[in-house]
Amino acid sequence: MKRALSVAALMVALTGSALAADLPSYKAPPPPPPPPPPLWSGFYVGLNAGGTWGGSNNIWTSSAPLFSAPGAGGAANLYAAYSALGASGVSQGNTSGFIGGGQIGYNWQFWGGRLVAGVEADIQGVASSNSNKTSVTAAGAFPFIAASEIVTTAITTSKRLDYIGTVRGRLGWLFTPTLLVYGTGGLAYGGVSVSTGIAQFNNDCAQFPANCIAGAAFSSGSFSDTRVGWTVGGGLEWMFMPNWSAKVEYLYYDLGNVSYSAGVLTTLNSTLTALPAGSIAGVVSQSQTRFNGNIVRAGVNYHFNWGAAPIVAKY
Question: Which residues form the signal peptide (predicted)?
Answer without folding.
Answer: 1-20
